[in-house]
Amino acid sequence: MAGQGEPCAGPGVWNQTEPEPAAARLLSLCFLKTAGVWVPPMYLWVLGPIHLLYIHRHDKGYIQMSRLFKAKMVLGFALIILCTSSVSVTLWRIQQGTPQALEFLIHPTVWLTTMSFAVFLIHAERKKGVQASGVLFGYWLLCFLFPATSAAQQASQGDFQSDPFRHLSPYLYLSLVMAQFALSCLADQPPLFPKRPPQANPCPKAGASFPSKAMFWWVSGLVWKGYRRPLGPKDLWSLGSENSSEELVSQLEKEWTRNRSATQRHTKATAFKRKGSHNKEAPEMETLLPKQRGQRGPLLRAIWQVGRSTFLLGTLSLIISDVFRFTVPKLLSLFLEFIGDPNTPAWKGSLLAVLMFLSACLQTLFEQQHMYRLKVLQMRLRTAVTGLVYRKVLALSSSSRKSSAVGDVVNLVSVDVQRLTESVTYLNGLWLPLIWIVVCFVYLWQLLGPSALTAIAVFVSLLPLNFFITKKRNHHQEEQMRQKDCRARLTSCILRNVRTVKYHGWEGAFLDRVLHIRAQELGALKTSSLLFSVSLVSFQVSTFLVALVVFAVHTLVAEENAMDAEKAFVTLTVLNILNKAQAFLPFSIHSIVQARVSFDRLAAFLSLEETDPGAVDSSPSRCAAGEDCISIQEGTFTWSQESAPCLHRINLTVPQGCLLTVVGPVGAGKSSLLSALLGELSKVEGSVSIKGPVAYVPQEAWVQNTSVVDNVCFGQELDAPWLETVLEACALWPDVDGFPAGVHTRTGEQGMNLSGGQKQRLSLARAVYRKAAVYLLDDPLAALDAHVGQHIFNRVIGPDGLLQGTTRILVTHALHVLPQADWIVVLEDGAIAEMGSFQELLHRKGALVGLLHGARQPGDGGEGETERPAGAKDPRGSAAGGRPEGGSERFVKLVPEKDSAASEAQIGLPLDDPEGPGQPKGKDRTQYGRVKATVYLTYLRAVGTPLCLYALFLFLCQQVASFCRGYWLSLWADDPTVDGQQTHAALRGWVFGLLGCLQAIGLFASMATVLLGGIQASSLLFRGLLWDVARSPIGFFERTPVGNLLNRFSKETDTVDVDIPDKLRSLLMYAFGLLEVGLVVTVATPLAVVAILPLLLLYAGFQSLYVASSCQLRRLESARYSYVCSHVAETFQGGPVVRAFRVQGPFVAQNDAHMDESQRVCFPRLVADRWLAANLELVGNGLVFAAAMCAVLSKAHLSPGLVGFSVSAALQVTQTLQWAVRSWTDLESSIVSVERLKDYAQTPKEAPWKPLTCAAHPPWPRRGQIEFRDFGLRYRPELPLAVRGVSFRINAGEKVGIVGRTGAGKSSLAGGLLRLVEAAEGGIWIDGVPIAQVGLHTLRSRVTIIPQDPTLFPGSLRMNLDMLHEHTDEAIWEVLETVQLRATVASLPGQLHYECTDQGNNLSVGQKQLLCLARALLRKTQILILDEATAAVDPGTERQMQAALGSWFAQCTVLLIAHRLRSVLDCARVLVMDEGQVAESGSPAQLLAQKGLFYRLAQESGLV
Q1: What is the spatial distance between Cα 921 and Cα 1037, in angstroms, rounded to a whole number?
Q2: In 3-state terms, what secondary structure has residue 1269?
Q3: DSSP state of 610
Q4: What phi, psi does 698 have (nearest 5°)?
Q5: What pTM was computed for the model?
Q6: Exposed end of the chain (fewer CB within 10 Å): N or C?
Q7: What is the mean pLDDT of each run of 10 residues along the chain (1504 residues)?
Q8: How many other CB atoms sit within 10 Å of the CB of residue 665?
Q9: CB atoms within 10 A of CB 556
């Protein structure tokens, strides 16, 4: 509409005989006027109908008429009136006989209809709840830009008097359009009745204006909040329903099920056709087809159907962005053409600068919209696929669960899902770079002609170099990974067996082994880093090499081809795009290949066999008295379709209220019977029916990582009196009393804060609390001592227990409970051997009698670890299972106060005695806020000050070389041309090449210095961590979870090894690159300093805001996603329990909640990334605009070469700005690992291993006399004494047994003797020397201990036997002969050099115990401690060990810590410990005669 001046006609318009500059053609008044008339209407008529259809399908509710809406409508009608008046004036003039050009009628008519459509859109958007319109925003912007340009040109020409109306109406029109544009930058109020329910903390995007959405300004509030204080969960927005697990998983699950069913139908049809024709191999094909094709296809189609709209929209944004990407070099070409032409008017230069700025901004905005949409798609796919995997975990059959380990499932969720979703970003990288390359070569051909072909030759020649480097680097990376895995295995083994290492004083030997492996690992990493530096240099310098060759060929070979600014700097700009393309393509291919492997793994897992929901006919209604609750008719079951049946022709009916026990030898099928009742087995034939709710107690207790009360309630509402009754019956109250937060104490991962018995009782309590009709109990008494088991049976399972009246099937090895059972089933080889009442089976003298006879064999039964029986006094003042005195208070404590520390307790103090299971676990620290400067200084000190300064100097040198190279190119471009050639072209080319080579050398040296300095720092920090941990006392390892320590030795160390040097290198490269660009622009156009300073302030502001918030969001996201992985692993392990209790729904909801919480953090972080990228690229574009405008203003004083240098450098800074901040943020996130490696530097350490002065002089001890004098110790300062007032003497050569209940202090005496725990009072003397004055390694090398659990370490047999390399091979063979292992070792491959696996799993338990004995025999010390060393071996091995000990240690002092009283009956003296004190002392016969505590223990063990 605007620009209604003279029509585009005249004699010069179509005159092409005289060449005209491209800028003049594109910026002519005629062109701009035509574009201004037709572009906005075409835009609206193309996008408007699509927009209408979209808002019709996505109705958000009705918006009330607001002032904003009314103002838009008034302005819209004013514009309609103005267009109508233009049409009317034209028609009136025609009527008056004045000839009018046709365009004066057509243009206003087009604008009238378009304005009417725009007003209709405004109204329709209000009706459909659109608060801010992007389509209308773009329309008003176009309506203003094009006409404003032509109007400005027209105004410069004057001539207002000839036609005042047509000259004034554009200005009135522009004013109205500008007002409409301003209003379109605002957002309307939210809908009055929204379609979706309101949220507590809604995402501000919904109510943001269009510019705010485009620039991501709506996230600024959260970023500012994160800058001012640490962000917490309450600060994060609620997750929109379109991003919630419930919606996303249901969509993907629906599509996956539909596609999978269609594929299976197609496969069956194909197989049937093949079979029906003639092919006998049809059955084989039928099995192969689903495996090869039927797995990947359905999942791929399902994912495509769920995410295609978002992906296609993102791809469209990227294509539009690339259009503007290639517009910028063309505009730069026109701009340099303008600079070189002194006759072109200045307004054209300003317009080109504006167009260049707008093109760069639009490229940024569309590219960021592309990234935003694909990142949101990644987030959604991660939610959907994780949810699908979780639902599959809940449905896996028993055979599928056996084929998949829990680690595999966690890897699927944490690694494979991540790889799959990340590949979405790189899908377009498979085809788009190819188009980039084609377009770039077209550009280069236009600029340089055939010389552009040499660019292809250079790029192709660089490919073999990069291929060779990549191959060599992969080889060294694999070597590094092998060494890292080896180190990780050894470190894990040391930490898990640290008590054994400290028992023997082997810390030094293991430190040497670990550091030796570490040196090999760092050697491989060093070579890999150097190759990586070469690869990076080749990538960075490839642009220069191509430019050098192309320029040399163009200027030196072809005649009359002079170098000018347009050719030089536009070529460089195009080559930078080309360089990105050739780097992005292989990277995309690599990512997609990795994703395909992960995709196949996911598809294979999702195609695994599931449980058959119809295998068991279950009814939720309870059966009446006398009815059969459970019925199996002719049941034959198997674990998988491929395996043989494990249960044959089972016929069993169980009436309501019956207690049925299932017994039989190991492997008879007892647990399989319960699994069959639960539907966990594949039913071959027969039928199974169960009436009423079922509760199940598995053989291996499964405990959730939550509080005790949550484990027991298991999703049901809390019934405090019933919970109290259940815990009391399950003998859990004494344990709960000792927990720091009572029933609200967390059990830890896999119940690591509980003992085995506690976990089994908790599992039973969960079933009892359920109030089910049918209870399936899989040997719940096995992990309990005899007296506790009897208490549980009497109070819970038995005829008078809590479960009386319910149907109970009890699988048990505790044959003493059989007389109280209503019915007994004896299984043998998967079939029912006999069944009946106890008396009936006794009279038959069949299989049950055989079992009872076998159970009475000598040495069996009654020798579990002696725990306090029900009724005996507990140290905490209550009986096991009995009601404590404070019972009424405990009822109150079931419901915690909201703000109490107890309710927040994540990990508790010891749940048992400090020497027993349930050790206190230290909570890993979480970092908040910004990283302190001292952490950076710690790292830089580890690198070394000289190396740091040298690296900075090298970076400065290479950047100076880069600056000089660009400046030299500008001088080359400005050289005068004589006869079509430049006189100094050869010199310019040689110097240009020399400067480029110098930059390449400097770049390689600087990067290599940073990477090698990082390796040096990593070596020192790792050595410090290893030393700090090794020097820590045993209490430190008991309080600190092994996972925390392994995390520092693996993940944190890997971060310091690889990530920190890489991020530091990137940061230095980008920072010096920014300095160079600032210097270039300032030197070329000093006036640009005025614009650069505000841009720097903006940059610093964005950087500070982003870094603070991003680091916090990353930490929150990492913590939240770990909950998802833990929950998946937990559910996988407890799948049968979850299905048995029919709580799949609550578990799915819990997983969805964990996933949504993770995505609540993920979404703000990805938006914050886009906020940073968009705004910093706009800042960079502002620098381009400043450089271009200053060049226009200073055109008279500048050469085209210098302007090209300045503007092309500014164009490269656009992405450098954001990557500098990203590198800084990544560095800040990674540098936390340095702090974590130094965490243990200040923790308490052990006494010196080898002090300068030692009270003991070799050979010590000569005799082996031990004396305890008023000895007492405690495990931590805040705990009471675990042992107190212990005084006794053990004579040289005496054999003394130490017995007592759990927690009595037996093992504490051994720990005190080896100084694993230092004495709190009194002391211990050996041969008259106080051990407190002896070095730890001296003491521990003179005392030998053989623990109950035999421990072997990864390495050779010889290393395991002689850790310190003190003995000859002959001595080792001699002790092997003594323990009767010589023949066994001689038969092994490698003999003494046979490699043991972790924990020695490739040897039997008996062989491992004999090897530990051989190790003890080699040391041959005067004092030997046996911590029930023969408990875990068979009678034959025990006899061998007793014989060897009797011959080799006949003259030694022996301390026998016994958990089984039978072991101490041949000792000269026995110490009976009780509550940390010596209760009785004497020979076994004397103590039995006293009928004291020892006598009671003997009674409980069945010895008297």
Answers
A1: 9
A2: strand
A3: B
A4: -75, 165
A5: 0.77
A6: C
A7: 47 42 56 77 91 87 88 92 86 78 80 92 90 90 74 55 67 87 89 76 87 91 88 85 88 88 78 58 40 67 90 93 90 85 80 89 92 93 92 85 74 82 88 87 83 80 76 79 79 80 82 88 87 80 80 71 75 81 76 83 86 80 79 85 81 88 81 87 86 87 86 87 89 79 78 74 90 88 69 86 88 82 87 87 83 56 36 34 39 38 32 34 53 84 90 91 84 69 73 86 89 90 87 78 74 84 88 86 81 84 84 77 80 86 89 89 89 87 86 80 82 77 81 82 79 68 83 80 84 83 74 82 84 80 77 80 80 80 80 72 68 80 76 56 72 78 78 83 84 78 65
A8: 15
A9: 13
Q: Can you say whether residue 135 is alpha, beta or left, with left for phi > 0 and alpha for psi between -120 and 50 degrees?
A: alpha
- What span, in angstroms and rounded, lies between the C-alpha atoms of 363 and 369? 10
Task: Please report the DSSP string for 221-274 in residue order.
Answer: HHHHHHHHS---GGGSPPPPGGGSHHHHHHHHHHHHHHHHHHHHHHHHHHHHHH
Which of 1367, 1364, 1334 lies closest to 1260 in space, CA to CA? 1334
CA angle 244, 250, 253 (to 5 degrees): 130
For residue 274, what are its two tokens? 């093949």
Query: Which tokens is 401 given?
Result: 């669960």
**Are 488 and 514 within 8 A, CB to CB?**
no
Rounded-to-integer distance, Cα 37 and Cα 285, Å? 65
Q: Which residue has the tokens 């600079």?
A: 339
d(CA 547, CA 352): 26
At what angle are helices 67-95 and 164-184 packed, to 10 degrees? 160
Whether the Cβ atoms of residue 1475 and residue 1304 lie closer than 8 Å to each other: yes
1237, 1021 Cβ separation under 8 angstroms: yes
| Contact (Cβ atoms closer than 8 angstroms) between residue 80 and residue 115 | yes
Amino acid making up residue 1156? D
Query: How far is the C-alpha of 905 from the C-alpha of 1457, rounded, in Å?
Result: 35
Contacts of 1058 (CB under 8 A, 6+ apart): 525
Q: Is 275 exposed, middle or buried (0-12, 13-18, 19+ CB in 10 A)?
A: middle
Choose among 777, 1462, 714: nearest CA to 1131.
714
CB atoms within 10 A of CB 65: 11
Instruction: For strands 1283-1290 and 1266-1273, give the pairing.
Output: antiparallel
